[in-house]
Design goal:
With 464 residues, this protein is mainly α. It is 48% helix and 6% strand. 45% of the residues are buried. The mean pLDDT is 95.
Length: 464
């Protein structure tokens, strides 16, 4: 039989992988992964993602070797490399999971055209989402722009198909020359990621373990616990595994359904928020760089390197903000509730462009996903398709008191204030003896709120 090429991208798993199933059914399989940073440009993998990618590729290599296949690793122009590989091996088809990023869609179109000139083809499969964005429309035939009706429409479609097993038979195609994993130079040269292994196990097996734990023990309390960052397991922790495709949304969906209790519906709505972000990116490819609400193109941001740096380092003087930013740096991840609080503080209190926050999250999050990251930042900044109003301004003191009332989260990440009583934990400047070595607020809340409201008023006046 003629061999096929399986192009792994953001589907780094063997179970519930439609592209793998189709390739295996067609004949001997040549699995390949290509690091193509030039095609991605500014949205090539950030530093934390590169650390994860190294380890998940190692896990995928081991899983394939256990089944008699060798993962071919290449680096460079994927269009040129795959066109040459198809010609040299005689492979008639390249199978891959569909991607949704604008740069990836452009590259796929270019590859399909190049393959057609030599009598080959590119076949794209679903696998990263429950539903393809181009197939979901409103009753008027338009893309959805608001999350709630979007989620209702997807719930109305019924349950997704059950996940596929790993193919029973995998036949290896002849090996081809490539490079070793170390040559991709994915690991950081500095030791900032040394603590990551304490928090994460990249790879399909790690994803399965985390999913099983969440489904079995944590889902029932998700409805209330998901907003409490001090809980060790209040959320699923599946986001980086989903981002790299080590687990599929179908697997997660059906595991949640099996969990029962009151939590699944709320959790499934989070899965559908991920779907909605990709839906927006598909129809609005400018979303990672430009506000979806055009009036915000003239928003009076006040870029300030000192403000941005203090926020990045977790030195704003607001413990809940600083806890989140330090957790991000130390673990490559931040609790979702705290992501909203820290993002709001940057764009509203500090009036820094949301794109600066988006870029920092992209570089430091192991779960950095272009659709979810940009949609979430636009939501917080008030300029997205279905955004929180810009004049909704979180009070970081009240947010800390509400969602970290006992201080477990804040004390863990901001040791300078750990000894303070709860009354002063989230406003240490008000304590009779403010802690030494911890900064005063970079801007008072009242002043930051007033600046934000004034900026929004100026924008509205300018828009007429």
């Amino acid at each position: 039989m003629t061999q096929t090429i399986l192009w792994f991208r953001q589907d780094l798993r063997l179970a519930d992988n439609p592209a793998l199933h189709e390739a295996a059914a067609a004949g001997p399989v040549l699995p390949v992964y290509i690091l193509d940073d030039a095609a991605a440009g500014a949205f090539a993998h950030g530093g934390a993602q590169r650390w994860w990618l190294h380890h998940t590729l190692a896990a995928l290599q081991s899983a394939l070797r256990a089944r008699g296949l060798e993962l071919l690793l290449l680096q460079g122009d994927a269009v040129a490399l795959l066109t040459d590989l198809a010609a040299r091996t005689g492979a008639r088809t390249i199978h891959a999971a569909r991607l949704y990023e604008p740069w990836a869609r452009a590259r796929d179109a270019k590859l399909a055209a190049a393959l057609a000139t030599i009598g080959r083809s590119l076949t794209l499969h679903s696998g990263a989402l429950l539903h393809e964005p181009h197939r979901i429309r409103t009753g008027q035939g338009n893309p959805y722009a608001v999350y709630t009706p979007f989620s209702r429409a997807l719930f109305a479609l019924g349950e997704p198909a059950p996940p596929l097993p790993v193919p029973a038979t995998l036949t290896a195609a002849p090996a081809q020359p490539g490079i070793n994993l170390a040559a991709l130079a994915l690991l950081p040269r500095r030791n900032w990621a040394d603590a990551f292994p304490k928090h994460w196990t990249p790879g399909e097996a790690g994803a399965a373990t985390r999913l099983a734990r969440f489904g079995a023990a944590e889902l029932a309390g998700y409805d209330t616990q998901r907003n409490l960052p001090g809980l060790a397991h209040g959320t699923s922790g599946l986001s980086p595994h989903l981002r790299f495709g080590e687990v599929s949304p179908r697997q997660v969906w059906h595991a949640a359904r099996a969990g029962g209790a009151a939590g699944p519906h709320t959790f499934l709505k989070e899965i559908l928020w991920r779907e909605f972000a990709h839906h927006l990116l598909w129809h609005r490819p400018e979303m990672p760089e430009a506000p979806l609400q055009k009036t915000f193109e003239n928003f009076p941001w006040q870029p300030n390197p000192r403000f941005l740096r203090a926020w990045q380092r977790g030195e704003t003087g607001y413990p809940i903000i600083d806890a989140g930013m330090r957790q991000l740096w130390a673990t490559g991840w931040m609790h979702n509730r705290v992501r909203m609080i820290t993002a709001s503080f940057l764009v509203k209190h500090l009036l820094q462009p949301w794109q600066d926050g988006e870029a920092w999250f992209w570089d430091t999050l192991v779960d950095g996903d272009l659709a979810a990251n940009s949609a979430s930042w636009q939501w917080v900044a008030g300029c997205g398709a279905d955004a929180a109003p810009y004049f909704r301004i979180f009070n970081p003191v009240l947010q800390g008191e509400k969602f970290d009332a006992d201080g477990a989260y804040t004390r863990a990440w901001v040791p300078e204030v750990a000894s303070l009583p709860a009354k002063f934990l989230h406003q240490p400047w008000a304590a009779p003896r403010p802690p030494q070595g911890y900064p005063a607020p970079i801007i008072p809340h009242a002043e930051g709120r007033a600046r934000a409201l004034a900026a929004y008023a100026a924008l509205r006046q300018q828009a007429g």
